[in-house]
């Protein structure tokens, strides 16, 4: 994941946590993708650009982004503190 995070330790940790969350997702396709990334069978970049997983990741991100944009600054700060 260093290729995505630029070897930034905090970003790397946040990205690893995100992949762990995806591995516990209710979405079986995202669980499959996250497990493949964790097992080293697939890079996160490959997953994000694939037809199979990219569409699913984009849809999930869009849902998050819509909710994030509706949050107050305080709610955003709270979310960041929990990450």
Molecular structure report:
- By secondary structure, the chain is an all-alpha fold.
- 80% of the residues lie in helices and 0% in strands.
- The chain has six helices and no strands.
- The protein has helices at 2-5, 9-23, 28-38, 44-49, 51-70, 73-82.
- The longest helix has 20 residues, at 51-70.
- It is globular, with a radius of gyration of 13 Å.
- It starts with a helix and ends with a helix.
Annotation keywords:
83 residues; mainly alpha; single chain
Main β sheet profile: none
Number of strand segments: 0
> Could you tell me the mean pLDDT?
86
Low-confidence stretches: none
* Cα end-to-end separation: 18 Å
Helix content: over 70%
Name the helix and strand elements from N-terminus to C-terminus, one letter apiece. Answer: HHHHHH
Structural class assignment? mainly alpha
**Overall body shape:** globular
* Rg measurement, Å: 13 Å
Annotation field: number of helices:
6
Strand content: under 5%
What's the short story on this structure?
The chain has 83 residues and is mainly alpha-helical. It has helices at residues 2-5, 9-23, 28-38, 44-49, 51-70, 73-82. The longest helix has 20 residues, at 51-70.
């Amino acid at each position: 994941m260093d290729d995505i995070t630029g070897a930034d330790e905090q970003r790397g940790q946040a990205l690893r946590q995100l992949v762990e969350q995806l591995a516990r997702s209710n979405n079986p396709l995202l669980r499959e993708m996250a497990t493949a990334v964790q097992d080293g069978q697939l890079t996160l970049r490959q997953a994000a650009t694939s037809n199979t997983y990219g569409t699913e990741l984009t849809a999930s991100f869009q849902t998050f982004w819509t909710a994030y944009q509706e949050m107050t600054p305080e709610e955003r700060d709270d979310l960041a503190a929990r990450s």
